[in-house]
Amino acid sequence: MTEIYLVRHGQSDNNALAEHLRVPDPGLTEIGEQQATALAAWFASHAIDYLYCSPFLRSLETVRPLAELRQLPVRVRANLFELGGCYSGHEAGKKRGEPGMGKNQLRSGYPTWDIDTSIGEAGWWGREYETWEQGKARAAGVAQWLASDLATTSGTHLLVIHADFKRLLLEALFSDAQLETLQIDLAEIPLYNTGISCLELGPDGWLLREFNSTQHLPSKWVT
């Protein structure tokens, strides 16, 4: 059986700041670090075979404790980033693309990890702000990758991704009718930091075994 876990990153500095104070690539808050440690402890007794994350610092630092605990390399994939990409500015029409970390910077911080070959020294982003339509198309591509590659590779795969992209990805994997049957309104439900969702590809399509779970966290760390 192949299981795929979709996990939102831990609380970032931006999550704890007013919008006008946010930076392009924030790290984790102290709570975010505790969430990441708790996530690793939770999966200590679970079989995890493959780890993936986006090239954002908050995603990298969320998966690090688990990677170190399980002695697993992480595959840093350039297409798992948050909707919009790496950018500065938060007013409509004034969001400007930023480069993000480059290949050598990522290799310096995470020397044993598998860095996506599409990431160059100039940075993994360096484009205009990604639109919702572009993000939706990217999510559809990732959904296809999950079905064609990950779901056909035996084992357990864990991806550390982002809230808005997780919404787009779940919308690409499940129809509106399926989500309604599951009583999941992605527009209304907050996706918690390090919230865990578990998928399995069955003969009739995707099954959602777990959604947005925070059972690994004490209530004071649920954000």
Question: How is this structure best described in words?
Answer:
With 223 residues, this protein is of the alpha/beta class. It has one domain (2-74, 130-221): Phosphoglycerate mutase-like (Rossmann fold), CATH 3.40.50.1240. The chain is 31% helix and 19% strand. Strands 6-3-2-7-1-8-9 form a 7-stranded mixed beta sheet, sandwiched between helices. Strands 4-5 form a two-stranded antiparallel sheet. A hairpin with a 2-residue loop joins strand 8 (196-202) and strand 9. It starts with a strand and ends in a 10-residue tail after the last strand.
Comma- or semicolon-separated keywords:
seven-stranded mixed beta sheet; globular; 223 residues; 9 strands; 6 helices; Rossmann fold; alpha/beta
What's this entry about, in short?
This protein is an alpha/beta fold.
List the topology elements.
Layout: E1 2-8, H1 30-42, E2 50-53, H2 57-70, E3 74-76, E4 87-88, E5 96-97, H3 103-109, E6 114-115, H4 132-150, E7 155-161, H5 163-173, H6 176-181, E8 196-202, E9 205-213
Helix pairs in contact: 1-2, 4-5
Structural class, by secondary structure, is alpha/beta
State the end-to-end CA separation: 31 Å
Helix content: 25-40%
CATH class: Alpha Beta
How big a fraction of the residues is strand?
Answer: 15-25%
Number of discrete helical segments? 6
Determine the CATH superfamily: Phosphoglycerate mutase-like
Order of helices and strands: EHEHEEEHEHEHHEE
Basic shape: globular
Largest sheet: 7 strands, mixed
Mean pLDDT: 95
* Radius of gyration over C-alpha positions, nearest whole angstrom: 17 Å
Q: What's the CATH topology name? A: Rossmann fold
Physical arrangement of strands within the biggest beta sheet: 6-3-2-7-1-8-9
Tell me how many strands there are: 9
